[in-house]
Amino acid sequence: MRVAPITITLLTLCLPASAMSQTAGERGTPSSAKHSVEVPSVLPDKVPTAQTRAALSLQQADVSLRWKRPGLYVTAGFGESWESDIINFRKDETVSASLGVPITYERESVKSLRPAGTGEAGVGYNFGNNFRAEVAYVLKAHAAVSETTIGTVYYDGGSLTFEGNTEITGTLRKHAFFATLYYDLPTHSRWVPFVGAGLGVARVTSSDMRYDYDVVYSTGTRAVGSRTEPGGNGNALAYQAKLGLQYLISGATAVYLTGQYFHLNRIDLGGGTIYEEFQVFGARAGVVYRW
Questions:
Q1: Together in a domain, 41 and 75
Q2: Is residue 53 situated within a structural domain?
Q3: pLDDT in tens, 219-247
Q4: Minimal CA–CA distance to 96: which of 43, 154, 135?
Q5: What is the DSSP letter of 231?
Q6: What is the rounded distance in angstroms from the CA atom of residue 256 to the CA atom of residue 193?
């Protein structure tokens, strides 16, 4: 009868841990294994896992690949442009009211223009190899502000020089059609930088220009008054360069921000007005939609 307690103790020590855990569970005592399953159950929703990051990267890569596939697209954008001072040559022949003889005015002026809005709309084709081509219409309109002038008056028997400052009221508009080639830098993400270069033709139209002038002649005579220069139009070769960044909203839609340099060669507007060149810098934001 005294051996029984010793036998029970030895049997307890020899029992496997799993059996004891099961026995504890049956008695309603929580096991450590049960706690290890429940505690981390909320962590995957709060901390990005390697699998989540990989899935996001694949999604961005998929959008980038779908954007690169060949196909047509349309684009439109609006922004602001700033024009450098422009040089204007003009030659007029008239009869002097004071001298009563024919005279010729030859003058060179530097015209300043204020910033103005610019717009663009076009259609293009993506070749699928990071290159795309686009044909677009561009409009720029600038209002003239002021002008400084130097010149010479020729008349029968002599000549005299003059210089003056002028306030101007009038507008110059530039309508251009460009064929532009773009290269999209491969990034395998939604952010796609790009560069572009284009060649085209531009038509410049000028409204009637009102000049309120203050001119001093080499003889010491000063003339203050106003005159109106008739408007005109002309065509010239133009080219542009672009640098920008696209954000791919989806495989079909993107928004962009771009900077542009626009150059227009020497142009004759008729009536004796010749502009040596136009140099315009601009910034635009827009949208691209493709099929």
A1: no
A2: no
A3: 888 888 888 888 889 999 999 999 999 99
A4: 154
A5: P
A6: 9
User: In whole angstroms, what is the distance from residue 206 CA to residue 111 CA?
Assistant: 13
Give the structural domain span for 17: 4-45
Lowest mean pLDDT among 25-34, 79-88, 240-249: 25-34
Whether residue 151 lies inside any domain: the answer is yes
Question: Quick one: 149 and 13 in the same domain?
Answer: no
pLDDT at 138 over 80: yes
Select from 90, 84, 132 the least CA-distant residue to 263. Answer: 84
Secondary structure (3-state) at 4: helix
Q: What percent of the chain is modeled with pLDDT above 70?
A: 77
Number of domains in the chain: 2
Domain harbouring 245, CATH code: 2.40.160.20
Q: What angle do CA 83, 84, 87 make, to 5 degrees?
A: 115
* Cβ contacts of 115 within 8 Å, gap of 6 or more: 80, 81, 82, 83, 142
* Beta-sheet strands, E only, within the chain: 71-83, 86-95, 102-113, 116-126, 131-155, 158-169, 171-184, 191-206, 209-217, 222-229, 233-248, 253-264, 267-270, 273-275, 278-290
Asked if 216 and 268 sit in the same domain, the reply is: yes
For residue 242, which amino acid is it?
K
Q: For the chain, how long is the longest CA-to-CA vector?
A: 155
Sign of torsion over alpha carbons 106, 107, 108, 109: negative
pTM of the model: 0.70
